[in-house]
Design a protein that fits this description.
The chain has six helices and two strands. Helix 1 crosses helix 4, helix 1 runs antiparallel to helix 5 and helix 4 packs antiparallel against helix 5. The longest helix is centred in the middle third of the chain and has 33 residues. The two termini are about 15 Å apart. The chain is mainly alpha-helical.
């Protein structure tokens, strides 16, 4: 990617990561496991526990990536290699874990992606707050995935072809 494109991707990605992190942090500061599972349903307890665990991990990775991209933008000389590696990490540490969460509380159903309907399908029916957060985040991470699709596979392939260790 050309330097201007990498810098623009860095700036927009950083802004979107901040938005995602702010929404996640607000949610996590507002809701606890007992609040989410007010009915004390054991199956929902497991569901919400997994959801909260995945969400906390996602927050940490978003914050780390946000900081790394900020470092890249603050450097006196913009370092394309450093930034591209950071954008690659955003794809694999933030975007992929959002769409493929470890605890599989939800998944993306690609059949709905082009219909204008929400493509996120939950394993159990969550409360409104969990559903709303997940749908809001899916819009942010969908945009990021489209913008950073180069970093899914092509970035590593290009680096290997150039003989660089990744």
């Amino acid at each position: 990617m050309a330097m201007d494109n990498v810098k623009k991707a860095c700036e927009t990605t950083r802004k979107q990561l901040k938005e995602a992190a702010d929404r996640i942090e607000s949610f996590l500061n507002t809701y606890s496991l007992p609040q989410l599972n007010a009915e004390s349903d054991p199956e929902m307890e497991d569901f919400y526990r997994g959801y909260l665990q995945d969400t906390r991990h996602l927050l940490v990775f978003c914050e780390v990536a946000y900081e790394k991209l900020g470092v890249s933008l603050r450097r006196p000389t913009f370092n394309v290699d450093f930034t591209e590696k950071a954008l690659y990490e955003v794809y694999h540490n933030c975007i992929s874990p959002f769409f493929y969460p470890k605890n599989e509380c939800y998944s993306e159903d690609g059949r709905y992606a082009y219909t204008g309907q929400d493509a996120i399908r939950f394993r159990k029916k969550p409360n409104r707050e969990v559903r709303d957060l997940t749908i809001e985040l899916s819009k942010i991470f969908e945009e990021l995935r489209e913008e950073l699709s180069y970093y899914e596979n092509d970035y590593i392939t290009q680096r290997r072809m150039q003989g660089e260790r990744v």
